[in-house]
Design a protein that fits this description.
It catalyses: Couples ATP hydrolysis with the unwinding of duplex DNA by translocating in the 3'-5' direction. Its EC number is 5.6.2.4. Residues 36-204 form the Helicase ATP-binding domain. Residues 540-620 form the HRDC domain. This protein is α/β, with parallel strands linked by helices and 756 residues long. It has 5 domains: 11-207, Rossmann fold; 215-406, P-loop containing nucleotide triphosphate hydrolases (Rossmann fold, 3-Layer(aba) Sandwich), CATH 3.40.50.300; 411-514, Arc Repressor Mutant, subunit A (Orthogonal Bundle), CATH 1.10.10.10; 539-647, DNA polymerase, domain 1, CATH 1.10.150; 653-753, no CATH class. Helix content is 49%, strand content 10%. A 7-stranded parallel beta sheet has the order 3-4-2-5-6-1-7, with helices on both faces. Strands 8-13-12-9-11-10 form a 6-stranded parallel beta sheet, with helices on both faces. A two-stranded antiparallel sheet has the order 14-17. Helix 12 (274-285) links the parallel strand 10 and strand 11. The longest helix has 23 residues, at 517-539. The N and C termini lie far apart (68 Å). The structure holds adenosine-5'-diphosphate and zinc ion. Adenosine-5'-diphosphate (ADP) is lined by residues 25, 27-29, 32, 49, 51-57, 303, 305, 331-332, 570, 592. Zinc ion binds next to helix 16 and helix 17.
C-alpha cells in the first residue's frame, strides 16, 4: 500500500468538483481520492476493489480533468457499450472500438480521438495490440491507460484471457504514459502477475476493503429450493435479480417454472446463440425481464446497478466466484440480498466436477477452495467476516447483516482447543495441511505422520478425545476466524496469522460453535420470514409509493431514449429522491447521483412527478392489497384525480403526456400495440403501459380490441369470487393464466370506472 502521490494538492479539489458536476456525487468513496491523486501524479497504479466498489470513477475522473484521451482496455463488448453510454449520459465524451464497430464509425472515433474531443476511448485487448492500432495511438495525445478487469492477465485466475498477456508491450510503446490496472480480485498471486506482466513501474497499490455491507448474506438449506425462490421473489415483485444455476438444463427449467407463476424471467447460458443471449441480456438491462436464470457465463459484462438480489441455486465452486457473483447485487450501494442454497449433495457433485479431468495439482487446489466454500455455507459465525478473512481482511466486528448475526448459534470457550491446534502447527514448522494436522492431534499412526516423525512432537495425540469431524469443524472455524490461513502454493500448509499468534499466547479469547447443521435450517427460515415481513411493511409507505412512481417514470424515459433505466438514475438515487422529495433545482442537484447533465435532461420530469405525488398521505384502503404487480399503483386508475392545483407542466413532463397521446393517436387509427411499437421504435410493453395509463386517465380506448364482453364478464366474476379487489397475480392465477396482465389491468380500470 502506498502513500499519497505527489500531484499538486489542488488537483484533488478539481477532481472533487468534477465528481459533483459530472456524477452528482459529493464525496469520494474511501481510497478513490488517493487513487486519483496517484494517477494524476503520473504513477503506475494497481487498484484492487470489490465489484461495485467504484473503480470506474478512479480512472474516469483523471481522464476528465487531464489533457488528452484515456484509453481503457475492457474485455467485454457489452460492458464497453454500457460504460460509454453511462459516460455520455453524464456529459463526458466517450467512445469505444471493438469488432462490433463498423469501419465508418471507427474512422469517426479515430478522428475524435486525434482531435482531442474524446476523454475516454474503450478498446478490446485484441484491438489494442494490433500493430496498426498501436501506431495510430502514437499519434494520439494519451493521458493514461486503464486496464479494467486486470486479473484476466493471470493464468491463476478464473477468467484468464490469453489476449491480455500481450498488453505487456504497452509499456515499451508508451514508456512514459501511466498505466492503471483495476480488478476485483485481491489474491496475492494475481496481484503479482498483474504487476509483472504489465511491466508496471514501481506501481502504487491500493487495496480497498472488500466489504459490501449493503448486501444481506443468507444461506438456506437446499431442500425445496424452487418454492423457496418463488416465495423470495413473491416478496420482491419489482426488484430485479439473478439466479445462478450449475447446468444449462436447470436454468431453463427454473426460468420456465417462474414464468408459469407470472414472473418475467428469462434464461441465459453458453448453449444459446449470441443473438438469443444478447436479446435476453438487453431485456434484463431494460427492466423488461425481472429475473435472469443463468449459468456463471452471465454477469461479467453486466453493469446493471439496480440488481437487487442474487440467488445461488447451487453451491459455487469457490469463494472468489461466489463473491464476484453476489457482488453484482446492489452496486449502487442501496440494500441488496444474496441467498445461497446449500446441501451436502451439492458439495459432492461439485467436488466431482472440479477434480475430474484436471492435473492432480489443480484438482487439489480446486478441492481446497471448494472446502472453503463449504465452510462458508456451514458457518456458525458471521458470514461476512468469513468472506473478508478469505480476502485477508478483518472486519473487527460481526456484521449484523447476515443470517448468522441475526440468529447466533450456541458457542463455547474454545481457547484450549484452538491452542492445541495452533501449537501442533507450530511444532511442525507450519508445514502441514488440515488433514495431517488433525491426524497429529488425534494421534493417528499413518504414513504421513510417521515419516516426518510427527509422532514425536509434544502435541501428538493432544486432541484424541474428539472425533475427526469435530476437529474438522473447529479447524475450519479457526480458519474462518482468521487464526490460520492456507498457503496454497506451499502444499496447502496451514500458516498461523498474527491473530493466531495472539491466541497461542493467550492474549485473545476464542469462541467456537457447536456444529448442529439440522437445527440451523429452522432458525434461518424464521429469520427470512421476519425480513420478508419487514419488506412487506415497507412497501405500503408513502416513500415506497413515490419510489415506485419514480421508478415507472424512469422506465418510460429509458424506453423512449433506448437506454437502460439504471443509466437514467440508479435505484439509490431514486430512493434518495423519494426520501427527500426535492422540488427545486438546488434540492434536486443536492441528491447524490444527479449531476449537471442529468439534471438538465431529466430534472424537471422528476420534480414534476414529486410535486404531483404530493405530501406524504395515508394509504387508501384499496392500496393495501399485496398485489403483484398491484392494480392500484399510484397512477390513479379510476377517472383522473382532479389536478387543477398542479402547476403547469414543465417541458419534459409534457413529453411524458405527449408520448401517451401519440400512442393514442395511432391506436385510434386502428394500429395494434405491436404495430405502434414498431412504428415508434418503443417496446410493446411501453405502448401497453401508455394505453393503460391513458385509459385510466379517461382517454378513449377501443377496449373491444383487447377484451370481448364475455371476457369482461368472466374477469368480473373472478374478481367477485376473490372478494372484489384481488391482487393482479391472484386474479391471473385464478383465471389460469387465460388473460395477461395488460388485459387484467384494463378490465380493472373498466371496473373502477363503473364504480364496480
Ligand atoms: P466497479 O467498477 O468497482 O464494480 P462502479 O465503478 O461501477 O464499480 O461503481 C459502482 C456504483 O457506485 C456506480 O453506480 C457508481 O456510479 C457508484 N459510485 C462510484 N463512486 C461513487 C461515489 N464517490 N459516491 C457515490 N456513488 C459512487
Ligand atoms: Zn454477520
Amino acid at each position: 500500500m502506498s502513500s499519497v502521490a505527489t500531484a499538486p494538492a489542488d488537483s484533488l479539489t478539481t477532481a472533487r468538483q468534477a465528481l459533483k458536476r459530472f456524477y452528482g456525487y459529493d464525496n469520494f468513496r474511501p481510497m478513490q481520492g488517493d487513487i486519483i491523486q496517484s494517477i494524476l501524479g503520473g504513477h503506475d497504479t494497481i487498484v484492487l476493489m470489490p465489484t461495485g466498489g467504484g473503480k470506474s470513477v478512479c480512472f474516469q475522473i483523471p481522464a476528465v480533468v487531464s489533457q488528452g484521451v484515456c484509453v481503457v482496455v475492457s474485455p467485454l463488448i457489452a460492458l464497453m457499450k454500457d460504460q460509454v453510454e453511462a459516460l455520455k449520459a453524464n456529459g463526458i465524451p466517450a467512445a469505444y472500438l471493438n469488432s462490433s464497430v463498423t469501419q465508418t464509425e471507427s474512422q469517426d472515433v479515430g478522428r475524435a480521438a486525434l482531435s482531442g474531443h474524446l476523454k475516454l476511448l474503450y478498446v478490446s485487448p485484441e484491438k489494442l495490440v494490433g500493430e496498426g492500432f498501436l501506431q495510430f495511438l502514437k499519434r494520439v495525445n494519451i493521458s493514461l491507460f486503464a486496464i479494467d478487469e486486470a486479473h484476466c492477465i493471470s493464468s491463476w485466475g478464473h477468467d484468464f484471457r490469453p489476449e491480455y498477456t500481450q498488453l505487456g508491450t504497452l509499456r515499451q510503446h508508451f514508456p512514459s504514459t501511466p498505466i492503471i490496472a483495476l480488478t476485483a480480485t485481491a489474491d496475492r498471486l494475481t496481484q503479482r502477475d498483474i504487476r509483472t506482466q504489465l511491466n508496471l513501474h514501481d506501481p502504487r497499490v491500493f487495496l480497498s476493503s472488500f466489504d459490501r455491507p449493503n448486501i444481506n448474506l443468507l444461506v438456506r438449506p437446499g431442500q425445496d429450493r424452487l418454492n423457496g425462490i418463488l416465495d423470495f421473489i413473491g416478496r420482491r415483485p419489482t426488484e430485479a435479480g439473478i439466479i445462478y444455476c450449475l447446468s444449462r438444463k436447470t436454468c431453463e427449467t427454473v426460468a420456465q417454472k417462474l414464468q408459469q407463476k407470472g414472473i418475467k424471467a428469462g434464461h441465459y447460458h453458453a448453449g444459446m446463440t449470441p443473438n438469443q443471449r444478447g436479446s435476453v441480456q438487453e431485456k434484463f438491462l431494460q427492466d423488461d425481464l425481472q429475473v435472469i436464470v443463468a449459468t456463471i457465463a452471465f454477469g461479467m459484462g453486466i453493469d446493471k446497478s439496480n440488481v437487487r438480489w442474487v440467488i445461488h441455486y447451487n453451491l459455487p465452486k469457490n469463494i472468489e466466484g461466489y463473491y464476484q457473483e453476489i457482488g453484482r447485487a446492489g452496486r449502487d450501494g442501496a440494500p441488496a440480498t444474496a441467498l445461497l442454497f446449500y446441501s451436502f449433495a451439492d458439495v459432492m457433485q461439485m467436488r466431482e466436477m472440479v477434480t475430474k479431468d484436471v492435473p492432480p495439482r489443480q484438482a487439489q487446489l480446486n478441492q481446497a477452495k471448494l472446502e472453503r466454500m463449504q465452510q462458508f455455507a456451514e458457518a456458525a459465525s458471521c458470514r461476512r467476516r468469513i468472506l473478508l478473512h478469505y480476502f485477508s481482511e478483518d472486519l473487527g466486528h460481526d456484521c449484523g447483516n447476515c443470517d448468522i448475526c441475526r440468529n447466533p448459534p450456541t458457542t463455547f470457550d474454545g481457547i484450549l482447543l484452538a491452542q492445541k491446534a495452533l501449537s501442533a502447527s507450530v511444532r511442525t514448522q507450519q508445514r502441514v495441511s488440515i488433514n495431517l494436522l488433525i491426524d497429529i492431534l488425534r494421534g493417528m499412526r499413518n504414513q504421513a505422520v510417521l515419516s516426518h516423525g510427527y509422532d514425536q512432537i509434544k502435541t501428538y495425540g493432544a486432541g484424541q478425545d474428539l472425533p475427526y469431524l469435530d476437529w474438522y469443524s473447529y479447524v475450519h472455524q479457526m480458519l474462518n476466524d482468521g487464526l490460520f490461513y492456507i498457503a496454497y502454493e506451499e502444499g496447502y500448509s496451514l500458516k498461523i496469522t498474527e491473530r493466531g499468534q495472539q491466541v497461542l499466547k493467550g492474549q485473545l479469547p476464542v469462541m467456537l460453535k457447536k456444529f448442529q447443521p439440522t437445527e440451523k435450517a429452522e432458525k434461518q427460515t424464521r429469520a427470512t420470514k421476519k425480513a420478508a415481513a419487514e419488506a412487506a411493511a415497507a412497501t405500503g409507505s408513502p416513500e415506497a409509493r413515490l419510489f415506485e412512481r419514480l421508478r415507472q417514470l424512469r422506465k418510460t424515459i429509458a424506453d423512449e431514449q433506448g437506454m437502460p433505466p439504471y443509466v437514467v438514475f440508479s435505484d439509490a438515487t431514486l430512493q434518495e429522491m423519494a426520501r427527500e422529495q426535492p422540488t427545486s433545482r438546488v434540492a434536486m442537484l443536492a441528491v447524490s447521483g444527479v449531476g449537471m447533465k442529468k439534471f438538465e435532461t431529466y430534472g424537471e420530469a422528476f420534480i414534476k412527478a414529486i410535486i404531483q405525488h404530493g405530501p406524504p398521505r395515508p394509504v387508501p384502503a384499496l392500496d393495501d392489497t399485496p398485489a403483484v404487480p398491484p392494480f392500484t399503483d399510484d397512477e390513479p386508475l379510476g377517472p383522473p384525480a382532479p389536478r387543477a392545483t398542479a402547476p403547469k407542466a414543465p417541458a419534459s413532463e409534457r413529453d411524458v403526456n405527449g408520448t401517451e397521446e401519440t400512442t393514442f393517436q395511432l391506436h385510434r387509427q386502428g394500429l395494434s400495440p405491436e404495430q405502434i411499437a414498431e412504428q415508434r421504435g418503443l417496446t410493446v410493453s411501453t405502448i401497453k403501459s401508455h394505453l393503460e395509463r391513458g385509459y385510466a386517465k379517461g382517454l378513449d380506448l377501443r377496449l373491444q380490441d383487447f377484451l370481448s364482453d364475455s371476457d369482461l364478464a368472466e374477469i368480473a366474476a373472478a374478481r367477485a369470487q376473490l372478494g372484489g379487489a384481488p391482487g393482479l397475480r391472484d386474479l391471473f392465477d385464478h383465471l389460469r393464466e387465460k388473460y395477461d396482465y395488460f388485459q387484467l389491468r384494463l378490465a380493472g380500470v373498466k371496473a373502477q370506472r363503473q364504480g364496480r
